[in-house]
Amino acid sequence: MNALAAVLSRRLPEGQVVEGFRAEQWAVCDRVPQAVVFPESESEVAEVMRLATQEGWTVVPAGKGTWLHGGQPPGAVDVVLSTMRMDRITLYEPGDLTVTAEGGIGLDLLARRCGEHGQWLPLDPPGPRKGTLAATVSTASSGPLAYHHGSPKDHVLGVSLVTGDGRVLELGGRVVKNVAGFDVLKLTIGSWGTLGVLTSITTRLHPQPPADRTVLFRGEAAELVALARAIATAPAPLAALEMLLPGERERSGGPVSLLAVRILEAPEATDEICRIVTDTAGASAFRQMDGRASADLFRNVEALESGAELVVRLSLLPSQLEALRQYACTLRDLADPDEGWGTRLAAHVQNGILRVIMSRMARGEGWIDRAAEVIERVRGGLEAEGGSLTLSRGPCELVSAVGAWGDVGPAAPLMKTLKREFDPAGVLSPGRLGFL
Amino acid sequence: MSAALTSEVTADLQAIVGEQWVITDPVRLLAYESDGLTAYRRPPGAVVLPADTDDVSQVMACLAHAEVPVVPRGAGTGLSGGALAGPDAVIVATPRMNRIVHVDPENRLALLQPGVINADLTVAARPHGLYYAPDPSSQSACTIGGNVAENAGGPHCLKYGVTSRYVTGLTVVLYDGEVLRLGGLGRDSAGYDLTGVFIGSEGCFGIATEIEVRLLPIPQATRTLLAMFDQLEDAGEAVSAIVARGLLPAALEIIDRETIQAVEASIFAAGYPVDVEAALVIEFDGIEAGLDFEAEEAERCCWEKGAREVRRARSEEERLALWQGRKKAFGAFGRVAPDLLVQDATVPRTRLPEVLRAITEIGHRYGLRLANVFHAGDGNLHPNILFDRSDADELARVEQASREIMAVCVEAGGTITGEHGVGLDKRGYMRMVHSRDVLEVMRATKKAFDPWGGMNPGKVLP
Amino acid sequence: MNSPGVALADALSGKRDLLLPCVHCGLCLPACPTYVRMHDENDSPRGRLYLMRAVVEGRIDPAADAFQTHIDRCLGCRACEPVCPAGVEYGTLLEYARAVAVAARPQPWFIRTLLGVFQRPGRMRTVMRLSRWLRASGLAGLGAWIIPRRWHTLRMGLAMLSASGGGKLRRLGRRRRAAPTEASVGPPDAYSALPDTDDKDEVRPARVGLLSGCVQAGLFERVNDATGRVLKANGFAAVTPSTQACCGALHSHSGDLEGARALARVNIAAFEGADVETVVVNAAGCGAAMKGYAQLLADDAEYATRAAAITEKIVDLSEILVRYGMRKGAPIWARVTYDAPCHLLHAQGVAEAPLEMLRSIPQLELVELKGSAECCGGAGLYGITHGELAQSIGSDKVDAILETKAEAVVTGNPGCMMHIGAGLLFRGAGIEAIHPVELVDESYRRGGLY
Ligand SMILES: Cc1cc2nc3c(=O)[nH]c(=O)nc-3n(C[C@H](O)[C@H](O)[C@H](O)COP(=O)(O)OP(=O)(O)OC[C@H]3O[C@@H](n4cnc5c(N)ncnc54)[C@H](O)[C@@H]3O)c2cc1C
Ligand code: SF4
Ligand code: SF4
Q1: Residue C32 Cβ contacting ligand 3 at under 6 Å
Q2: DSSP assignment letter at C283
Q3: For chain B, what percent of residues have pLDDT higher than 90?
Q4: Which of B217, B244, B268 corresponds to the end of one domain?
Q5: What residue of A is the nearest CA neighbor of B240?
């Protein structure tokens, strides 16, 4: 047992520390941790963090380890702290439409428990459903439902956070309206584990939608873009508006593009919204799916990134969807032709976000440099137009080379100050957010 | 911080914004000694009225240089004393910054200066079939900047959420005059959500000088019901029943007997029966089809919980009439008692009935007149204490009682303020809900934005 | 506490209930034309009430510049009243505040002189005769053009005088046009008889009293004449007691409460003598003032009940015409817009009646005026005393009017007619401000009803 793991084992109950080859599958990018810990309580998390600060070990908080490659690779990884054994629901009062659960609860388990009371948390981040609530909140991940139902920052009411030096902070609360003091809670959402470990989360719930319907349109990419924009500005509450495009150059007989319009309203309203959508489209839908089929389609959208080697998120104002598509086409050439290109584009039309999802990149002499050059060029173009490019997933060298996120600009010093407050010794996921 | 609002400083300020936009006459400063909460009076050292981000930046740099603290102010409708400054501080007020820079229907966005009045935005968006969702009861007067600073809510935030849900980007000026652009739709901002943490910062971090917000399509139709109950608790039960049935109304508002009587006695009499214990306003909105069904379901819940009468609006006028009693409540109190203490605690919805019982009991015990107006759907209570400040004994009882009410709410898993903010007024209660460590982190967060301590000092933190 | 403070405190002592309800909520701020332009809370209703309270509490001296300036700068338009959730009676409080302000620091000589004139019918007649001569000779119009801007008071005064002339009405909307909109088209047999009143609950009063008004009588005789004819055509016989006087509005607005009370007593007596159940007023400002007699004389032992009785009888011309139904006259093919006088809309709460009156005219196209509820800046003598601000307010009004492309703007108050008229004149807009009854009268005339 290595020295670090030994110290930890002495402090934590039996079986909570893992090292050696069993730690390998918890590698963050190519950095294998010296130990992985699975605390079962908040106080144990605090104990680990106090120790880490004292010893100067770097700690990367994790959930089920499904997302360790997301974000920028941290500079060093001594310990991976997984909250997956903290997966209890601690307070659930359906009448309040809120639930409090430990951070390590899987989204699937949470959905099941809330579903028993006809409630749900409308969050559909990319990735497998078993992913933890804490990881979702910590990365502020969301999917097609975000525009209408909100993203983690709109759902989360309160958290318990263990800071880098082991303080336990209860931020926010259990009630849906709360302005008692500064909203520090917001800083933790999307902080990628650089401010602390989320051990408990209270979130809003919604009544489950009485009906679920998806209307599908298909056509050539360019005309579908126009259609998507028209539907996006139609006066109807749409739960999601997702455009799925094949990555290949368009050719006749090739795969077609799809536009999926999801409606989650009462049955009568659903019919009416459908009518508005088809009227706006001026075309009849190519398919309509109800209930299970509709949910499954979107389940597939969530799973799009599974197994992908490169995921790039492009963002511009929603009205610039066509421009986004053009940028995405520039990136297409990075795919491996031997794999049949294997690229897909998926756009959250209402939010102006387009993801380029590539199952395998083209390798060969100098491929990292070439990819870096293309990505930087696209990023430059997008940023000049007020947009952004995020490298959600990619080969470690590539992410390190171009950075997962663009430049933060003049707010960087302020963020660094905040980081120091939560994590004075700088042990939490250093470098995960690039400059932080 | 050594305050030095010398005549040179005022002259510099005048040079920046123009002479007429700096107020220093002590008599004229009186109008700025209170906001919507008159319990506190503190005239500022001066008031400056800048026109744009650039003005604000220069004004702040000038004041920072002289080490004079700054207090932002919008329309001064705040109910926690947040916009008050002492004689050694300067109010930077935004009424001149009232331009709607643009409404962008394609992206359902609007870009605004902070002094734009909440309701004016909706008026500007309406021709595009859009509106701005957060609707504080003060929306005809309060500014978007003030809404951002307080993270304002409103009757319809049960379904639609509060201000933070709709603000997508900000331009803020820090105390030293630095201009930061935060967030913005169409970009994934790297790093921490500074936009999110700025919202609700009550003017203690900086001044928001440009605000980007999301607009929503105007709902096709609404259904409004007014249910009358002989027991306040029954109204609370009806709310729970509606939620349990999986309905999501746009608004669920309760006013109690004392409030109804105050309104009915005012010139805004809304025709509510004065002998009921509670009136519940229920509103649904959305696509026309299906709304009737929802309204009927809700009506059934009310009958089941013992409603005496349920009215349904059949026209826009009738809808406004049903809302009247709720909307005019605050003003009507002015006619009933010389002073009013507005509280703003929030509790988990299911705890409403017991908390109400406890509050009533506290009122009785201290011999005080309590009038309850609240956003029942999200558990946000406004128990208003009606009293006379000139009666010292009563004043003492009011203070005691309100502390007890807060304690009851916190005990029930709630919090001390749901939408009005802490300001000057509720600082004393902060320790009831936050640990020392959390307060320390809040202090540090403020310090990250304002290391000089010049922004709205003495507010929010105990 | 200084003595004027005591005076206000005294003046308000019985009125404490008027000042206290202000809960300082600020909902009145955006409704106030001076606040939205000056952006200073002292120029808002809440700020002015706060200043009043500060005087009552003895915190400030009413002679202080700030008190004087901000109370004086109030238009008295009372747009702040309907939006106030606490129902603060701002208009009444303002009159007391003005009285205190004036007591603390006398007004400029020309205001005093002017008010004096209004109190003495003899001098009034002389002044009006002189004014009419100035207007008829074209000197007023000429003066408004050539006098430099910096002599604002004179320039504005002459322009207002010139604008009071009227004269374009006879040519308005004579040519038949394609029907504008469904709604504004009257029935084909437009010349209808007196509407049946049997189905109305109330009995149509046969005899009504009519206030002549001083400016109205002096400069807008044609409006008074039209009023008489239209009333008659609709079955009312109007009597105008010769002992009546100026209504006193200008006096109470300028803080001369005693002057206002004296005039009120005269009018009460005059209309009591006329033995009428209803007193019709065709000038919004006068109507509002007379509806306020009860409040004004509440502490007058002899007159309190008599004032209350008269107050009950006051109606605006539009109210009485619309209440009992109106006859229709000939079509007028014109596009007009309506500007609501503050003292009708905010002070008297009369919103729909004038519009209905206009809708009774066949073919008349009535287009909505943006910001119709906002003051035009006329506000009695305001246009003259607060040139710059009044002009800023007025020019927004003129912009809105021009935007409607209307051929005339209709408003039922002499001050507004003159102020808006002057604004239009300065712009060389070529359209006039007219009283609603003038249009009805013209329609009747063309229809051969007289
Ligand atoms: C009758 C009435 C009803 C109300 N109803 C509601 C309600 O339903 N929901 C609700 O949430 N609130 C309500 N309020 C409270 C109040 O209206 C809100 O808090 C509102 O957001 C304040 O806006 P304001 O422009 O008046 O801000 P102000 O009162 O002027 O200022 C409030 C705070 O914001 C800061 N501030 C103002 N502008 C800026 C800026 N540009 N940048 C940074 N800081 C700034 C000030 O320093 C101060 O701390 C009500 C108030 C009244 C009087
Ligand atoms: S709206 Fe009425 S109560 Fe509110 S500040 Fe204005 S005058 Fe006072
Ligand atoms: S009367 Fe008119 S100008 Fe005066 S305070 Fe009221 S709204 Fe403002």
Answers
A1: yes
A2: S
A3: 76
A4: B217
A5: A95
Domain containing residue B66 = 7-93
**Is the CB–ligand 2 distance for residue C31 below 6 Å?**
no
The domain A304-417 having CATH identifier 1.10.3470: the answer here is no
- Are A267 and B290 within 8 A, CB to CB? yes
| B246 within 8 A of A118, measured Cβ to Cβ | yes
* Alpha carbon nearest to ligand 3 atom 2, residue: C77
What's the CATH code of the domain at B144?
3.30.465.10
Please tell me the distance in Å from B133's CA to the nearest CA on chain A.
Answer: 13
Tens of pLDDT, residue by residue over B384-397, are 999 888 889 999 99
Minimum distance, in Å, between the CA of residue B191 and any CA atom of chain A: 6
Asked if chain B contacts chain A via 3 or more Cβ pairs within 8 Å, the reply is yes
Tell me which chains share at least 3 CB pairs under 8 Å with chain A: B
In a shared domain, residues B45 and B106: no
Say what the pLDDT of residue A254 is.
Answer: 59
Chain A closest-CA separation from residue B7 CA (Å): 33
Domain count, chain C: 2
As for the ipTM of the complex, it is: 0.96
Residues 1-40 of B with CB under 8 A from A: none
Give the structural domain span for C73.
4-104
In terms of pTM, does the model score above 0.90?
Answer: yes
User: Which CATH architecture is the domain A210-298 placed in?
Assistant: 2-Layer Sandwich (3.30)
Task: Tell me what the pLDDT averaged over chain C comes to.
Answer: 80
Nearest ligand to the CA atom of C80: 3
> Which residue among B217, B250, B268 closes a domain?
B217
Q: What span, in angstroms and rounded, lies between the C-alpha atoms of A132 and A137?
A: 9
**Are B414 and B345 a contacting pair, CB within 8 Å?**
yes
Cα angle for residues B292, B294, B297 (degrees, 5° grid)? 110
Q: Which helix (H) or strand (E) holds C154?
A: helix C152-163
Per-residue pLDDT reduced to its tens digit, C373-386 = 888 887 766 766 77
Among the ranges given (B446-450, C192-196, C432-436), the one the predictor scored with the smallest mean pLDDT: C192-196
Spell out the long-range contacts of C132-135 with Cβ–Cβ below 8 A and sequence spacing 24 or more.
C132/C218, C132/C219, C134/C158, C134/C161, C135/C161, C135/C162, C135/C164, C135/C165, C135/C219
